[in-house]
């Protein structure tokens, strides 16, 4: 039963995204989510497919990774393979292989799910702890009250410029244009997603905060990827309000819970999510190759 590593084609994105989504339940650890693949999709389907690494056994997908930049591989493992030593050894061997088949040579980080045997396989190959991430979640079984200080709008082609304005300001980056938002909205994952913008001001429309939330299917955990507040509008609770709006949207889509991961050093983000009713349920280190 050999494990085959393969980079998919753009035509396979929808099927792989759906399969990865089926691996997510409230009992599985935080790992690569369809929303991560969808958000990466602002680069286009061809680039997204080229950044995916998929491992197959007997025609079944057992692990998937997204090369999120040249030195970061974000992974998901099928629940049935999470503690399978054969899968762990095969995936780890491909990751560390000198030909760069899964990850380019040199300094790198791997984001692997907590409890996966793959983590042990990388540690035995010399990988050490890297950045620590805090994983938070909120149960969605009960209705969510969204503050009214923000006027929440669903984002579409008509008002996408408001959403991209917030993103560029919040993340100090000019990369996320209206065209790139349209690329995200065209991804297979976005069929189960919602983008929201929060507006303030009595006159005109001042975009203060924005969020994109992604479902993995009804009864499964959804994620926030990403949430941001315009620096000029911080300090007014808008981050909490837009997060609550995003969680309410996931509940409307039938998600069982909302999840988010943020660097543990980003204490302001952790505090925002906690204020929005999320609970910190795990801290997990990336694995790093110096």
UniProtKB/TrEMBL annotation:
Cross-referenced PROSITE patterns: GNAT
Keyword annotations from UniProtKB, A to Z: Transferase
Family matches, as SUPFAM superfamilies: Acyl-CoA N-acyltransferases (Nat)
Entry protein name: GNAT family N-acetyltransferase
Pfam family, one: Acetyltransf_1
Residue ranges annotated for the N-acetyltransferase domain, each copy included: 150-290
A molecular function (GO) term: acyltransferase activity, transferring groups other than amino-acyl groups
Cross-referenced InterPro entries: Acyl_CoA_acyltransferase (IPR016181), GNAT_dom (IPR000182)
């Amino acid at each position: 039963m050999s494990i085959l590593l393969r980079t998919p084609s753009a035509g396979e994105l929808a099927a792989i995204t759906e399969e990865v989504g089926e691996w997510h339940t409230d009992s599985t650890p935080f790992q690569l989510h369809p929303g991560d693949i969808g958000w990466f999709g602002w680069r286009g389907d061809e680039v997204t497919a080229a950044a995916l690494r998929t491992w197959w056994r007997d025609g079944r997908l057992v692990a998937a990774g997204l090369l999120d930049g040249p030195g970061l591989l974000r992974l998901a493992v099928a629940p049935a393979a999470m503690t399978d030593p054969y899968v762990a050894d095969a995936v780890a061997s491909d990751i560390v292989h000198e030909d760069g088949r899964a990850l380019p040579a040199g300094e790198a980080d791997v984001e692997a799910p907590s409890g996966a045997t793959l983590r042990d396989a990388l540690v035995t190959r010399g990988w050490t702890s890297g950045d620590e991430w805090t994983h938070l979640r909120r149960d969605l079984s009960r209705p969510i009250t969204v503050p009214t200080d923000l006027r929440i709008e669903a984002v579409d082609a008509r008002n996408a410029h408001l959403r991209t304005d917030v993103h560029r300001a919040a993340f100090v980056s000019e990369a996320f244009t209206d065209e790139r938002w349209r690329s995200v909205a065209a991804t297979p994952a976005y069929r189960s997603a919602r983008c929201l913008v929060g507006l303030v001001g009595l006159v005109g429309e001042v975009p203060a905060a924005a969020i994109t939330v992604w479902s993995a299917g009804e009864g499964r955990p959804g994620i926030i990827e990403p949430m941001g507040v315009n620096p000029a509008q911080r300090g007014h609770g808008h981050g909490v309000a837009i997060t609550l709006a995003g969680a309410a949207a996931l509940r409307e889509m039938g998600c069982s819970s909302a999840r988010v991961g943020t660097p543990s050093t980003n204490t302001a983000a952790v505090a925002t999510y906690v204020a929005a009713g999320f609970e910190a349920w795990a801290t997990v280190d990336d694995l790093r190759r110096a």
